[in-house]
Amino acid sequence: MTCWRVMSDELLKIGLLGRGTVGAAFAELVEERADEVARSTGRRPVISGVLTRSEGDAGAIIAEADLIVEVMGGTEPTREYVLAALNGGLPVVSANKQLLSRHGPELWAAAEAGGGQIRFEAAVAAVVPVIRVLSESLNGAQIDRIHGIVNGTTNFILSEMASTGASYEAALAQAQQLGFAEADPTEDVSGADAAAKMALLAQLAFGGWVALDDVVFEGIEQLTTEDIAYAREFGLALKLLGTAERVGDAISVRVHPAFLYAAHPLASINGSFNAVTIESPAITEITLSGPGAGGPQTASAILGDVVSVLSGVPAIEPPQGEAKLTGAVHSAFYLHLEVADKPGVLAQVARLLGEHGVSVKTVAQSGLGDNARLVMVTHSILESDFYSACDQIGELEFVRAAPRAIRVIDEQFIG
Amino acid sequence: MTCWRVMSDELLKIGLLGRGTVGAAFAELVEERADEVARSTGRRPVISGVLTRSEGDAGAIIAEADLIVEVMGGTEPTREYVLAALNGGLPVVSANKQLLSRHGPELWAAAEAGGGQIRFEAAVAAVVPVIRVLSESLNGAQIDRIHGIVNGTTNFILSEMASTGASYEAALAQAQQLGFAEADPTEDVSGADAAAKMALLAQLAFGGWVALDDVVFEGIEQLTTEDIAYAREFGLALKLLGTAERVGDAISVRVHPAFLYAAHPLASINGSFNAVTIESPAITEITLSGPGAGGPQTASAILGDVVSVLSGVPAIEPPQGEAKLTGAVHSAFYLHLEVADKPGVLAQVARLLGEHGVSVKTVAQSGLGDNARLVMVTHSILESDFYSACDQIGELEFVRAAPRAIRVIDEQFIG
Description:
2 copies of one chain form a homodimer.
Chain A: E1 10-17, H1 21-41, E2 43-51, H2 58-64, E3 67-70, H3 78-87, E4 91-94, H4 97-114, E5 117-119, H5 130-137, E6 145-149, H6 152-164, H7 168-177, H8 186-189, H9 192-206, E7 216-217, H10 225-233, E8 236-247, E9 250-261, E10 273-280, E11 284-291, H11 295-310, E12 330-340, H12 345-355, E13 360-368, E14 371-378, E15 381-382, H13 383-394, E16 404-409
Helix pairs in contact in A: 1-11, 3-4, 4-9, 6-7, 12-13
């Protein structure tokens, strides 16, 4: 038994907005770790008020609190409450990627004007400390590119499809049954959730504001087990990949399915885990991985931010103006064609690719009755050039089905 | 061209102790990133003095500097210089794991007395931000265990042996040729280098002081390609693994070769990369990986620490007293026996294992002329009990060679 003792610690009154899975886990964690936090920071955290759907008055909770933890989600009325807290000079710790990626400029302006601050480690990859590493460890380094598996639902579904041969529909049903996907999975499987997270990472890596609406994204709904099986022949793993990278004097932020070579650090991230790879000329690359969701994991990330506020870790820098975005990016592609099995087909496909500057790296052809299947991987090419070639190939009379194209991340890693 | 402008930033004068690979890379990086650091912190870093083997006066360099970067290595006279800086109230950024793990209490006391601080991200896994994550993100979380591949030389050698079937000697020669191993590789291949790093990680994770002398370690010199080939049949990868974990009310810190199941996050870390997995009930586990050495990478970690000092990130907490250490740890084992091929042998081995409480998980036997090879993997057992059984087995008359035992890290990971 721990001896009773007089604790002279000043309290830190936390106003908790939201008490779903994460809110409840956070309240529990605060109680469990209060002694340790008091020991290391000199202030003892307590939950001074809780706002739920049915109970609590937001204004009164904010007025009483020293710090606000926002885990209610959504953008309204959440935005209003967070603005009130920031205008009042309070630090806000939020797990709300939608709010931050849609209303960032307004929130950062309120934080600056009111003297508050916003921390949001839990908004991306839960307790995987990617926000801290970007805003602190690599503050001072030039970052060239971030690749991320930042949505656990889609990574679980793709891992299931790859390991069991299940269809997309069956893997999704499995994810729903195990609690890895919601009843309406649209936000996750469409890539929208990952897009919001990549917008936040891009802001930290490159300094400018990236609005969610500026992130282009594609989801995983169209992927087939056949794509995965074929790609395995080339040694590729299929992931829903977020990318934020410098392209000339602009940046590109996007989310789409992509094949990774087996040696890529993200290729071995399976199940509901998240992982982020940060590339910089000075550091080569570092990879951070771990559970990307879950009540206790997200709560732990939030408590880490609370401790940072208490111990005086400098506030995260607000974005410096708007980022200049571009869509003119390069990628290698996997291209899957169903064609009539007759002479000259490969030659015509190759000619069209060549005319658009697309160079083929590997090719595999297999018979299929009267038809043949042509699967190839290209070298890196401007995406718009590839799609021009692909569209023209789709119009050739011997092509039996719409061409299927999936991006491939080039081998470029040491290890 | 960037316009010329008046910069009003106050200078941060850095005294650089040592100008080997890392020191030179750091001086270059400071010049390259000075604008960015000045923008984000308001102070412009400059190298105000450099101590090399042949030039510079340590006392004068320290007296003039606002901050000391120590990359000279060794413990004497380095210790003396670092103490002088700390006693003078200067922040010291060091990459010197030997100094820190041998003379920690003295250094931390000087920092507290003089008002200085010590940061040492670069001392473990270079730019992989494990020090920061332990001291900040997870400050407030209870950590149960850290597993680390924290020596790039040995990981390169073991990866070579696994992928090419090369002998230890051939793989070491290859590592030396490529600059991944020194002419005298003892410090790395014996596990001593990894032991110093694990002592530092244990201190941060568990709060107490762990002296290098208290870390038990074994190296990789005795490992054979046969061990690796056999273990592959069981789906295992061989790594030099550092472990720091809670065992009851004590902690264990150790370094030894270990087999990992393929799904373990460290199993896929190949080549000269480093990686650390941190386990905590609240977070499940997170893994950080990247290049564990290299001039620019180490310099980048040092600059990250300099920026932290400048921007007021709280100092790393000094150790709270001495850690209580234990050697009574549990592990599963791979056991390789060469025995006479005759009836009753397996029964006798199994009986001896059973008498010591060792339970066998998998076993494979293969003929070898008059002899047979018996390879098994056990369930987790108190190490001393396993070694008692193993020693007795070694004395059985039908055993043809010294038994070979290598630890196996149990499957315990989600993903």
